[in-house]
Amino acid sequence: MKKTLLSRVAMLAVFKKVAFFILLTFISTLNAANGNFQQSKISLDVSDTTIFEVFSIIEKEANYRFVYSVNDVDVNKKVSIKVTNVDIESFLTSLLPSKHLTFDVRGNQVIIKSKTKKSTKKTTSSQNNVNSSAFQQQIIEGLVLDQEAMPLPGVNVIIKNARRGTTTDLDGQFRIKATPNDTLVFSFVGFAKQEIPVGSKQHMEVTLVMDGQLSEVVITSSYGTKQRKEHLVSSTYTVGKDEIKNLPLERIDKLLDGIVPGLQYSPQSDNTSSARSRYSVSIRGDASLSASNEPLWILDGTPLYTGGKTNMTGMSTSVSPLSYINPEDIESITVLKDAAATTLYGADGANGVILITTKKGEKGETRFNVSARKGLSFIAENTRFKVLNGQQYMGLAQEAYTNTNRDINYFPFTDNALNTYSNTNVDWYDVFYDQGETSQIGISASGGSERNSYYISGGYYEEKSTLIGNKQQRFSIRANNNIDFTDKMNIDLSLGASYNVNELFTPGNDYYENLPIISPYNEDGSFRQYYRVINGYNPDGTPKWEDRRFFNSLARREQNDDRQRGFAFQGNLKYNYEFLEGISYRLQLGVDYLSSNENRYHSMKNWSGKDQDGNRVGYASLINQDYLKWLTTHLLTVNKTINEHSINGLLGYELMKDNTRLVSANGSGFVNDHVRSVGYAAEQDGGSNFREKARMSYFGNLTYSYDGRYNATLVVRRDGNSGFGEDVRWGNFASLGAAWNIHNENFFSSDYINALKLKASYGSNGNSRIGSVESMGVYGYGDAHNYAGLPGAGMESSPNPSLSWETTYMTNLGVELKAFDKRVNLIVEAYRNKTDRLISDLDVSRTTGDVRVYRNIGAIENKGIEVTLNTINWRNEDFIWSTTIMASHNRNKLLSLFNDIPKNNGNKRWEVGEDSNAYYLIRWAGVDPRDGYPLWYDKNGNITREYSVDNRVVYKTSTPDLFGSITNNFSYKNFNLRVQASYMLGGYGFSSFGRGVSSDGLNIEHQNQSVNQLDHWGEPGDLALSPVPLWGVSTKSVMNSTRFLYNKTHIRLQNVSLGYTMKREITEKLGLQNLTLTLIGDNLGIWTPYDKKNRNSYKNNISGFPMETSISFGLNASF
Amino acid sequence: MKKFNKFLVFISLLSCFSCSDFLEVEEVGKVSTPVYFSDLDGIKSAIPGAYSSVYKYYNSEFYIYPQVAGDLLDLVPTNEGVKVLDQYNYISDASQEASTVGHIWTNAFHALANINNILKYQPELLNKYPKNHKELEQIKAQALFLRALVHFDLVRTYAQNYTYTPDASHLGVPVLLSSPGAEDNIGRSSVKKVYDQILSDLHEANDIFENEGTDTNQTQPYFGSDIAAKALLSRVYLYMEDWEKSKTYAQQVLLEVDLTSHDAYVDMFKTSGPSQEAIFTLSGIKKNSFIKRFYSTQEPSAFASKKLQAMFTEPSDVRLELLQNVEGSENLITLKYFRPEEAQLNGSDLPVLRASEMVLNLAEANANLGLLEEAKNNVKTIQARALGVPETSIVINAVTQQEVLEVISIERAKELCFEGQRFFDITRRHKDLERSPQTTSNVEHIAYPSNLFVLPIPLKEMNTNHNMIQNEGY
Q1: What confidence tier does A134 reach under pLDDT thresholds 50, 70, 90?
Q2: Is the Cβ pair A722, B179 closer than 8 Å?
Q3: What are A993-1023's pLDDT values in tens digits?
Q4: Of A663, A755, A624, which is closest to residue A228 (Cα–Cα)?
Q5: What is the arithmetic mean of pLDDT over A398-421?
Q6: B345 belongs to a structural domain
Q7: B contact residues 111-130, partner A, Cβ 8 Å cutoff
Q8: What is the pLDDT of residue B27?
Q9: Out of A423, A567, A591, B82, which could bridge A571 as a Cys pair, Cβ 3.0 to 4.6 Å?
Q10: HEC string of B319-330?
């Protein structure tokens, strides 16, 4: 498989790009390393001094640290030495002229070891005790801090090779007895292990560095299983709380934007249909055509409701339930991507699984944390869709008018008592946009005693969007408790709830389409409802004036109501009982509950609340939806280590049920605008709906690891789902994976490579997320089936009893490499996911009584490569600079379809051998310089003046060639700067958004136009961007074509945060443990290679609304 | 700790207890087809559902198509008229999925599936509920009547008329006695086979109705009955030019149903509810009605053609009261679907079979059988009622069979205009389409026979069913 991947030309191109990035980083790394090397030259003149003392001097003077074993180096030997300005290596050579010793200088650490280390290994420990007693033990005191100078409690401090140690107390302090030639090893979950020789030091301050991906991190994986990162076989990526703490807080899926390889976060549409766009998260490409492409979100073990298969929530405006969770409560987010990890989730795992773990309490004294953030936001000027101002509009409109041989005296926009078009210039952006504001405050307390620990938090988040009339409020609380009843019995209870109020207003296209020459207000300041234009002429030749309705969105915003309230609750109870050592039973009960209430009212003061004839009516609607999911899981886990064999097993049985209840009421005909409740409407109607879905599963997982070298995992799962026909209700899934830690092999020895791991997995999982009774044929009751006053029922879909799971077969290969003293970490993963028995909603012969039925037909393939490169470019005591580069490439291909007949899907087309996101469009050939008319290419590539759908070709795709991010972290003393930029190369986006406003005169009477229209054909020979503007005339130039297709290549400065941690002296005076101040900038800029000044390009057409830039100031204190 | 273990055992038991049917889930308001038909309540409410689905395809252009493709109407190509503009101009195309071509096909087959589901599950229920024999047999008769009607409508729309070939061996439509699956690819039967099935279903329905009666809960004429079956038989035989049988069934019907009187004639259309002479009407109660909007008096999409206006030679004809002047113009609109007192949310009742048609069937059958005087008398019955005069005062100046048939044809047009029949009345009689020169259509004349006299099989059907054969000329 790898071979086929590599042989592809497209892949090569990607490799080149990737290689370039890697090279770039390597160069900078090497420079950094060299810099350190040459830093300190040594000059020394001593006589009759022990080597131990010499080392102490050098440690003090030249800032080196020596690491050695007393077995290798006789530190009591007295020497005389005189050197001036030599480098460390020549110094050591003269100091220790032994052929058996090697020197390894890494930064300021000097490791001295015997060349035959393996053979002496055994003798080391036996002699150690004897030798170490030669030195007097002394008490070493110290403090362990994290990168932000927060004391770290619970850090293991052990003496190397001595099996003796202690842990730090709540203030991060430790005391340990050690001899000067001992080495202390500091280790703590989530941090890089650090070894420090005691030497002459009696007090040490140790800073542990977070180690996100690449060390002895323990990962919480599927069903709460904990695994050492080193033993991990699967493709799993974890984002810790520190990586997300300065990111936007509005919704949890947005946190992952750009920071997880292979994961794409994007709006579902490019239009303005909703101010709260629905977003999609896709992991490793789209695996399905009709079922959901969304990953499975799991919070503390319970699947989260994220809306229907396209994240629709059943309300008029879909507000994502992912915005109902407070990101500050998140400890870590783990993204599972390959079969070895996701098969355990069986029929819902095909699109990947995202595990969210909330914060837990730590045993010890209560610790309070207060955080606050205040930000201002504004629309990024250069992402505004640029439209004409009043003067430009009038010019273009008049030109378009006369171009069609009309008499300018009857030009509609002629000044009159109601409108003075000639000097009105409304910037509708000013009307609909303003400065936005975000505020957040969070407070949490955590701690615990010997037998229990707790974390409780409360948070408030408010965002006033730059789009006036949109506001998000979230009140959240969480309580996580862990109680050990006995040594064997433990209960873990996590409860989280939030109340969310969303004010929703969508101006639609009005903010850019409204004519700049019509003001939203009348002269008396009231909202405009009419504008007056000339429409033709009277029989006597005088202009015929006409008053037209002006659908004023501003009035809608001010007078209508559109509010959604959501109450979300997640609860999880885990009962653990370890009945034999290493063998436990766990019962888990989980609940996800969401109650949403939408209240809308259309005021009778504006057109939205009037009927067609203009009568004041008023419309109200009220929707209430309750979603409840509950699940019960019984788990039997085995966790045994016997000598070099380590076994982890899991057997589980799970029941899950979801149901949704919806009640809606509509009313029209109100007395006045003060009574806005459906109950008071003259005409009322209502509806209700209920859906239920059940699932039952059996699963098992066995992980085996030998000596940390060989690791294997086997997963099986059997799922039953109520959504499928009886014949095919059950699905079986399995996966197998293996990993090999080459660096743990005896034969492996390298001075540069610290770790090297190969891994591979293969397996299957499914996608069951379609509607609930599609397989059986559905009879529905309701008004539509009633007849002659009798209640009736009718067939709503015809049966397909053989409808079954989509199955995705996933292959994953990976290499992990750590080199140069772990300063370069590289993870490369390649995958191929093939989805078979694709569920498609396919056209079917009408003789079946239906138009479309769900059928399992077709196959789709996603294959790609993901590279994550993490480098520490510079590291010394005061300054650390690290870089993480991510690059993902995915290639999507339809392998087969129903009868292999291509199927058009809007602007796109599903065709075998092509990308499932490939466009199917007529190619735009520009403007005819002779007469300014539009030109297209026909199917064969010849220029034609005729627009015909027969000339559509499969052309470009929305799948990018490469996407990812570059994150740089700089920390200097108490300052920390993080700069995250995301990028995309290749891939095209069709902008329906820009279509109506590039109408070449057709729509100019009703819509303002793009500034691109100024560059239009005027006289023969003009090579213009836009065709000749013709008032109200369609030359079909505005029809779908590649004219509205934009290359998506861009780079975006996504998040920059500058943090300052107060010096300890100051915080202590304030009675705090820690105080951090942060300045954060989000979406600071975007660049595309196709930008032209005063023109619209891709970045102006991205998502229906301009990008929002925000600057915020944050404060975090703990005590 | 003991307590916890007890709790554990309890929970485990509880969760296994519910295992057996845990995955059997039904939605409220929606059930799977087999569950739905597992009891009497289900099949009983499937009958209104089936009528409702028939109403749907009548409402989605089938009822309009024979008017706009005919010669009695001028279309206004705005508003609702747009939907049938292509049929008015005879430029139907297989790809017109979202208008007449696709709608009639799709919705009629959808109705057929609803009907066949009833017939599929009825025998099982008959075994299960022997006590409800009568009720279940009535349900079966209703379904058979509707199945015949749907096949008849489909074959008239998508196939050439019965007498297009001498033995009716030309392509008809698929004959469906049960719903095919997605992979079944059912092709077209000959017109002969389709008519055989229609006749067989109607005879069986008629027999059951005669034995078991009709359900008294159902408001006639909104449901099938023995008279409706006979009336439809009369029409089907008329199309087949089996004059004897057409006459027999028309006579049988007229023994049971009287014509509406002259005085009550206008009210027959203007007021809601069944009229005296109605035999089978599709009820518009709480239906979203395209027909109502199409013939609306506010924004009408159709006017009576000059040709139709010219047919009314007697100014005292009561039927002229149903043609109204539009303000400020010469245009006349029909009031057959104008019910000023009816509730806003009701759609139009659509008369399918009524006694007047039976009289005219009788006339045409008699004329073709050479019984010209009897035929003329039948026409006189209609004319006398229209003019409110005794039959004896009417004089018909027609001598030859051809002339009598022409008189009948004109009378039929005047009586049944805007009731979904005209175009089929032209083609079954092998007449050319001849519109008045003032027609707003691009097409004024089409000679019989013509490929244009049938609609194309929709493209989606062609793409999904490899046994489907397209009509000639498309």
Answers
A1: very low
A2: no
A3: 777 888 999 999 999 999 999 999 999 988 8
A4: A755
A5: 92
A6: yes
A7: 112-114, 116-117
A8: 53
A9: A591
A10: HHHHEEECCCCC
Q: Which residues of A touch B106 (CB under 8 A)?
A: 846, 851
Task: Please report which confidence band the pLDDT of residue A809 belongs to, taking 50, 70 and 90 as the band edges.
Answer: very high
User: Cβ(A704)–Cβ(A640) under 8 Å?
Assistant: no
Side-chain-facing half-sphere of A1001: CA atoms under 13 Å: 27
pLDDT of B125 > 90? The answer is yes
Which of A984, A1012, A1039 finishes a domain?
A1039
Picking from A501, A531, A552, the residue at the C-terminal end of a domain is: A552
Task: Tell me which DSSP letter residue B219 carries.
Answer: P
Query: Cβ–Cβ of A793/B27 closer than 8 Å?
Result: no
Question: So what's the pLDDT on residue B290?
Answer: 86
Q: For residue B469, is it within any domain?
A: no
**A559 located within any domain:** no
* Residue of A777, A784, A848 lying closest to B32 (CB–CB): A777
Q: Is residue A776 part of a domain?
A: no
| Domain contains A322 | no
Residues 193-222 of B with CB under 8 A from A: 217-219, 222
In whole angstroms, give the CA distance from residue B303 to residue B314. 20
**A476 pLDDT higher than 60:** yes
Rounded Cα–Cα distance for residues B115 and A569 (Å):
46
pLDDT tens for residues A505-519?
Answer: 999 889 999 999 999
Pair type for strands A138-145 and A203-207: parallel
If 0-12 CB within 10 Å is exposed, 13-18 middle and 19+ buried, where does residue A81 land? Answer: middle
Residue to test with chain A: of B2, B32, B349, most A Cβ within 10 A: B32
Answer whether residue B473 is part of any domain. no
Closest residue to B1, CB basis, from A486, A781, A850: A486
The average pLDDT across B63-86 equals 88
- For A:797-856, CB contacts with B below 8 A are 798-800, 842-851, 853, 855
Which residues in chain B have their CB less than 8 angstroms from residue A782's CB? 29
Is a pLDDT exceeding 90 seen at residue A634?
yes
pLDDT at residue A877, rounded to an integer: 79
Residues of the domain holding B339: 41-437+447-464
Beta bridge partners of A457: A444, A478
Chain A interface includes B361 (CB < 8 A): no
Return the closest-CA partner of residue A922 out of A794, A1045, A1051, A1099: A1045
Question: What is this model's ipTM?
Answer: 0.88
CATH number at residue B366: 1.25.40.390
Closest-CA residue of A relative to B20 is A696
Q: Look at B343 and B210; give whichever has higher pLDDT.
A: B210
Please list every residue in chain B whose beta carbon sits closer than 8 Å to the beta carbon of residue A798: 113, 179, 182
Domain region containing A418: 390-424+510-552
For residue A213 the two structure tokens come to 């991906």
Pairwise CB contact (< 8 Å): A632 & B174: no
Q: What angle, 0 to 180 degrees and rounded to 10, lies between the N-to-C axes of helices B191-212 and B133-158?
A: 150
- Contact of B42 with chain A, judged by CB distance below 8 Å, is answered with yes
More confident residue, B13 or A94: A94
pLDDT in tens, A531-580: 999 988 888 889 999 999 999 999 999 999 999 999 999 999 999 999 88
Q: How many residues does chain B have?
A: 474
Asked, for residue B234, whether it belongs to a domain, the answer is yes
Structure tokens at A589: 């009960």
The structure tokens listed for A106 are: 């890494």
Report the number of distinct structural domains present in chain A: 2
A796 contacts B110? CB cut-off 8 A: no
Q: Work out the percent of chain A whose per-residue pLDDT is above 70.
A: 91
The total domain count for chain B is: 1
Q: Return the ∠ at Cα A486 (arms to A483 and A492), rounded to 5°.
A: 25
Please name the amino acid found at residue A314.
G
Confidence of residue A122 (pLDDT cuts 50, 70, 90): very low
Whether residue A530 is contained in a domain is answered as yes
